[in-house]
Amino acid sequence: MSENIKYLPGREPHPRETRRIYRNINRVGYDPSIKCFMKDGGYETLKKVIKMEPADVINEVKKSGLRGRGGAGFPTGVKWTFIPKGNTKPVYLVCNCDESEPGTFKDRFIVHQDPHQLLEGMIIACYAVQAHYAVFYIREEFPEAAKIMSKAIEEAEAKGFLGKNILKSGFDLQIIVHRGAGAYICGEETGLINSIEGERPYPRIKPPFFPAAIGLWGCPTIVNNVESLCQVRQVMLRGAEAYAQEGAQRSPGTRIIGVSGDVKRPGVYEFVSGSISYGELLYEVCGGPKRGRKFKAIIPGGASAKVMRCDEVLKDRNPDGSVKEISVFDIPMDLDSIARFGSMSGSGGVIVMDDTRSMPHILNNLNRFFAWESCGQCSPCREGNPWMLKLSTRICNGQGSPEDVDLLKDVADNICGRTVCAFGEACSWPTQAFTTKFRDEFLALTKPINALKPHSEEAAEACKFLTRED
Fold it and tell me: What residues have CB less than 8 Å from 330, skipping those under 6 apart?
């Protein structure tokens, strides 16, 4: 592949970036066609892989240390080995392109501008797990991306990379595009599987419904994220050893990060895992805060990750065991470091807030999203999300009492860990973190007298002689 690459003016990579997955994004003269992809070395990796034993491909991915890029960070090769030994049922692979986490916008660029990179990764993964049928699941809000992917599949079939007897190897594979209806819960793998089957996207109980054992139509199913499948191609292109040596020891390879909010240069960037800190990202790459402002907080992994204060003093350990004080700006950007301080890198969406932002109003906005997106299967989510929204709205409207702040956190505490899927954590973590780290802002919007005030017209009528204005 030629490395003499030119990018569109104003879209050039930052010097700190290492573009592997995003190598062709915003590239001058590059288009989504298979002709352009093959001219740049596309499908050559598949030609090599198709001659290998499937078990050898899985072992190569395991040796690379590749971890999923969809949010959970589970080792990709290990996930593939969960298909039951001696399985006689069909095996399916699903590419999750739902990308519905607020603050996350990395995968859609791959589909729009370099779809064959993803297709090659999907085909390699299907060959490794011996799946002869795969589904590219994409949310309804990406209609153009669905068209681009459908065309890419047709082009790959015409060239013999999909369909019957791929590259005369005896391996057959069909890939279809399935458009979801735009529900956040479909980002959860078992909810997504129910959606494909035409059912309500209720997440399934695990165990027993681990997709690798009981997935699509009751058969073993592997669900991988868009970026994860592109990374599979990189592993097989570069080799497991070379891949494992690049980046953080426990999360090698590159990571795509989407930055939004109050910075001078928001956008999508690709870095070697652990090669840059949050401070370097926000100040050096993204240009720092807007004029006259200061960074106040960041959400490091999409809306469901716990917020981090920028002025918070954190405790970390040196290699010799001594304790040192650091800030969020000193934390390396890999899959594990931020987790030591109570948050997560999640889906790679960094949301930045400066000192002009009201934390109660931001939480209220998040609560409105999660209340709308709850599937309603579990009582804690179904009842707790609207309750949290009512409480945060009451506080933001100046009608809350100090006790409402404690009640808001208490509701969140009673959702977390009590639901079928991780939506319980996704919706409750923001409330837990915001009300704890910015408690003073919430209390500033409340009044003790409001504890005596009714919060409905019916209650006001019944209590009109019992309450008074302060």
Answer: 277, 278, 279, 314, 316
Burial pattern 144-180, b for ≥16 Cβ within 10 A else e, equals: ebbebbbebbebbbebebbeeebbeeebebebebebb
**Alpha helices of 297-438 — where are they, by DSSP H?**
359-373, 379-396, 402-413, 423-437
Structure tokens that stand for 316 in this block:
């970390």
The sign one gets for the Cα dihedral 313, 315, 318, 323 is: positive
For 141, other C-beta atoms within 10 Å of its C-beta total 14
Positive/negative CA dihedral, 374, 377, 382, 385? negative
Could you count the other beta carbons within 10 Å of the beta carbon of residue 443? 18
How many helices (H) and strands (E) the chain has is answered by: 17, 13
Contacts of 117 (CB under 8 A, 6+ apart): 21, 24, 37, 42, 110, 230, 233
One-letter amino acid for residue 174 of the chain: Q
Average pLDDT value for residue range 347-369: 96
Residue type, 290: K
Query: For 361-408, what is each residue's pLDDT tens digit?
Result: 999 999 999 999 999 999 999 999 999 999 999 999 999 999 999 999
Question: What's the whole-model pTM score?
Answer: 0.93
More confident residue, 460 or 145: 145
